[in-house]
Reverse transcriptase zinc-binding domain-containing protein (Daucus carota subsp. sativus), 324 residues
Amino acid sequence: MLNVSFWRKLWSLKLPGKILHFIWRVCRLCLPTAVDLRNRHVNVETMCSWCHNQEENGIHVLFDCVFARAVWEAVGLSDLIQFKPDENVFDVFLRIFTQCTRSQAVAMSLFCWQIWNRRNKWLWEHINISVYGTKATAIRMLEDWKSAQQEESTRRRGQNVGSKVWQKPIMGWVKINTDAAVIPGTHQIGTGAVIRDEDGRFLHARCMDIAGEWSVKEAEARSLRDAVGWTVAMGFIKCIFELDSKIVVDACNGGSGRSNFYAIIAECVEDFKHLDEVRVQFTFKSANVVAHTLARASISMSCFHEWQGNAPEFISDVLSFDLI
Ligand SMILES: [Zn+2]
């Protein structure tokens, strides 16, 4: 991941200004830790004021100090917070932000902010805030952030227009993006589908090539039909199906006719009955890149492929781009 993607991701988290500014300082390596002050010729004690075990640099205060470790343990993020001896605090942020979900990136930022605040309270006022207190304050901030995001996504949905960037489904739902690839003259189409959860986490994907002559709208409808059948079989019950074919979306949401195309749509609608709640919505191609990539790949791989839990290498970049 280029650094520019890192800064874009950081920006897109929509953190409160003071926290964004704090993370920005951390990543520009200008957090005024003891070691940093000494490097700027300020005469201070460089050992950590809490554990007195190591010099206080960014890595130590935020991740490695016994206090920081206890916080990461208490909030269940210690597996994520890994660092190597030669890394600086920006290297660690860069690597973790590349791997983690948006919510984890926000959580990490908020906990770092609280650990730093707590360090200042101890250093300047000798007030000892416990691991529990640090965790509780950051979790409150995380809840505020989540409800602000929820409000924004509700507001956007109210506008009922296709989005140009991929968006996570609402809480408790999964989103299934589907697409078809039609290559004229090959007597073959490819279909692809990907299922992601409310955090944008990858759950499943599959792609399949199908022989025969298909129009573009038939191929799009077929990709949806396969995805619906598959989703029902997997036991998901609240599903948003999203594709970049307006014709298919409109047909599912109330169209009717007599043609091969409408026969496929009727099969989709029949399968919707097995779901508790379902939406079929249009999205722009730019927000449907993962499904598109899968559909294209199915033609070159020419058979059926399915992935669970771990995304195949060839879509991992586009998956992480969707979360930026
Ligand atoms: Zn320490």
